[in-house]
Design goal:
single chain; alpha/beta; four-stranded mixed β-sheet; binds ligand EPZ
Length: 417
Amino acid sequence: MDKLIITGPCRLSGTVTISKAKNAYLPILAGVLLSDKKIVLNEVPNLRDINTMLTLLGNLGVGITRNGKTITFDPSTLSSHEATYDLVKTMRASIFTLGPILTRMKKAKVSLPGGCAIGTRPIDLHLSNLEKMGAKITLEGGYVYAETDGPLKGANLLLAFPSVGATENLMMAAVFAEGKTVIENAALEPEIDDLANFLNAMGAKVSGIGSTRLEIEGVKTLNEVEYTAIGDRIEAATYIMAALATGSNVKVEGFNPAHLEFVIDLLKEMGAKINIGDNFVEISESSLNSARIDTAPFPGFPTDVQAQMMALVTQVKGNTIITEHIFENRFMHVPELNRLGASIELRGNSAFIDGGHPLKGAPVMCTDLRASAALVIAALASEGKTEIDRVYHLDRGYENLDQKFKKLGANIERIGN
Ligand code: EPZ
């Protein structure tokens, strides 16, 4: 398993270019299954999760031609309706293929995703609402079996929680449904808008984009499309927090700052010097005050930035409280950060960080994707050498992380063993 060796503290400088968003391209790749026409996707990031989804599409019979980061799909050869456990267990986003396969092939067999490090990750909202659209759903042997006699039926759906994945799965299932589907209390994350824009570019009829009420008029066919996803706001937040944690001046470009409005506003309230451009932010060395942070669905503070924020506030004098409201087990980075000398105490779903004490390098271990990013940020701010093990977690969602940080001046090496 590869490791990262970081020797801090690192002062960073220069510009980092953000890749296109993992959490936009994963549902868009599932959406490829809806079409029988050529699709070209540009600047697809080289990430483990993306490659897993590409393997899944290939196994389903989709023709795939990669030319660097431009990928051409021929979904007319789709031949299977089964997403098997061996792939789904490695990436729960595979469940996004359920809606597209079902609405296109009238039947689907998709492995239950199972839990992951950060929580049980149920899919009840996906399944109960597909049933409202006329799907017959049975669970057996760890698989979801879904089928429908004819087209799915448009329905009025109300999500008990603004689930990102359920919103995406149901939006895609509605593309070929008969009549109109309404999704109330839809998630508002920017990646939802990006998926809707992709579907409409293919000729789907999604309206209400950017609102909690989505309306999808069923269509019969889709057309060819070429598409490029939005920049990855979570990757951008990671580099912003690394810059602030190391007292650096860094330009983070290639994403829409409006997609991080809450985070940027909060950091500025804490004292961060941030200049905002159309597709970049410029971070200047800042002295920050502690804060009270609660994760929430968009437009609130993203749960995917919680761990990175915690690493940052270990460098901020005073007591910061971070409460995680979305997932039930998303504090696995806490004991690892404490190994670096942080002073973090957990009480229920809140972490109490006594910040402003210097960190010292030590061997640590990645546990999940965003926890891994937190360890990188803390290691960059730590005195001495930190060895980060199991970096395959990072590879799920961060493209060329060590090279991007090295270009910013970090003392970081990736070693294989
Ligand atoms: C997406 O996961 C993201 N993944 C996650 O990013 C992100 O943390 C999450 O949205 C929240 O923003 C992708 O987009 C691939 P949810 P998803 O459905 O769709 C509960 C990362 O780091 N829930 O909005 O699984 C669930 O238990 C990953 O890139 C149900 O109860 O998130 C959780 O508590 C991690 N029943 C909450 O909703 C359901 O049927 C949020 O889940 C579905 C969800």
